[in-house]
Amino acid sequence: MKLSAKSEEFIANLRMYLMTSGKSEREIDEVAEELKDHLQELERRGESIERITGGSPELYMKSLGEAMTDDRAGWFKYLPAFILSFTAFSAMGPAIRGGFELNLIQLIGFPVVVLITLFLYWVMFRRMASGSWSKKKLFGMAVGLSMLTIVMFIAVLLVGSLLMEPFYTASAPGNRFVILLSALAFLASAIMLRSWILILIPAALFLPEWLIRTAPWTEDTKLVASAIVPFLAVFIVIGGIMAVERRRDIKRRAA
Amino acid sequence: MSTSQMLKGVLEGCLLAVIGMGETYGYEMVEKLGDYGLTMVSEGSIYPVLLRMQKEGLVMTVMRPSPNGPKRKYYRLTEAGEEELAAFRGRWDALSGAVDQLMKGSDEHEAIRKK
């Protein structure tokens, strides 16, 4: 039996709330399964989710969270994979274009921007999970936050290149070495997270760009192609991943 | 004081008693509590208590597939849980007996005053 959209949303929000509270992953899975089972019984009986939450999902999530084990260290194990893949993402593009360089302001500025962004997204996800913001406000915040992130990145990029000369500019073999290192970093993070996404998305983003660069086309064609093809490829990969996930989900329910 | 506030302190004891009757899972516990007239228990409120009991080692759990899809978590009392249930029973007998006596006394006092 399939759960109602409202119940599914509650379970997803509960997971997000407990995750952003740094609770143990195993306990989150267990309690989510347990509540799903209970909600199915309730819905079969024609009763609403309020029988569980007592009317306030926010207070209910809090009471569950207080009874659960903290496991912040468990979540921090994802940090190395995150740092590796973020560094690889920012290094691979310039290296493929043959212009990898290191600048002190950018070297310090980017990690700072990433930390600020992570913190702001954490706040937003928590608010989203506890349902204390309206859909409209949430949408506004999400748009605002992604714009702010882009603005901060561009600011660091501009300030860095305007104020300071790079202390390292890669030669052609240097660029190839950076590409190789980045590919290894993606591979390592994919293994650490046991997920194909960190191989598929960089491949979709950078492989077309690299192929286009080496293609026997005019510079104009290359410019247009490298502006469109990588984004299309990422779009297709994300669509494919979502389709596979959905099919897996249907199969799991049928089993 | 609301019923849910009064229940807070005794819910753990009630759950120990229900689980003590045999291996069971969340939704079934609510049904069993209801069979004994404890219909005022908010269904969700048992889960934070169960999590705490699990952490304190009063119950052990096992996940098994349920007939309707998601895995179901079954609870059983540990030895410490059995001991805690016996201790709760003792405290409850003393407390409920004393409160009963007090209420009876207060009723009689009221009746005499009215005369």
Lay out the secondary structure.
The complex is a heterodimer of chains A (255) and B (115).
Chain A: H1 5-20, H2 25-44, H3 50-53, H4 57-67, H5 72-76, H6 79-96, E1 101-102, H7 104-130, H8 135-163, E2 168-169, H9 172-193, H10 197-214, H11 219-254
Antiparallel strand pairs in A: 1-2
Chain B: H1 3-20, E1 24-25, H2 26-35, H3 46-55, E2 59-65, E3 71-77, H4 79-114
Report on this structure:
The complex is a heterodimer of chains A (255) and B (115). Chain A is mainly alpha-helical and 255 residues long. Chain A has a domain of 69 residues. A two-stranded antiparallel sheet of chain A has the order 1-2. In chain A, α1 packs across α7, α6 packs antiparallel against α9 and α9 packs antiparallel against α10. The longest helix of chain A has 36 residues. The mean pLDDT of chain A is 87. Chain B is of the alpha+beta class. Chain B has one domain: Arc Repressor Mutant, subunit A. Helix content of chain B is 64%, strand content 14%. Chain B is built from four helices and three strands; from the N terminus they run αβααββα. In chain B, a hairpin with a 5-residue loop joins β2 and β3. In chain B, α1 crosses α4. The radius of gyration of chain B is 18 Å and the shape is elongated. The two termini of chain B are 30 Å apart. The model of chain B has no long low-confidence stretch (mean pLDDT 89). Chain A: Keywords: Coiled coil, Membrane, Transmembrane, Transmembrane helix. Chain A: Pfam families: HAAS_TM (PF08006). Chain B: It holds the Pfam family PadR. Chain B: This is Transcriptional regulator, PadR family.
